[in-house]
Write a structure and sequence with these properties.
By secondary structure, the chain is mostly helical. It is built from two helices and no strands. The chain has one domain. Helix 1 packs antiparallel against helix 2. The model has no long low-confidence stretch (mean pLDDT 75).
Length: 51
């Protein structure tokens, strides 16, 4: 499950980067960025190695 969470966070960061440069998704992309950051912080706080 934690591997899936990390993968989703990476995908959301990539989508944010694409939306940031393409200006196509509007404010939705910033919501995705916040979700990705929360997922990454959750993973770091949990303390498991991303292997």
């Amino acid at each position: 499950m934690s591997n899936l969470l990390y993968t989703i966070a990476i995908i959301l960061v990539i989508l944010w980067a694409l939306g940031f440069f393409a200006y196509g998704m509007g404010n939705l992309i910033h919501i995705l960025l916040v979700i990705a950051i929360i997922a990454i912080l959750f993973r770091v706080i949990k303390g498991k190695d991303p292997v």
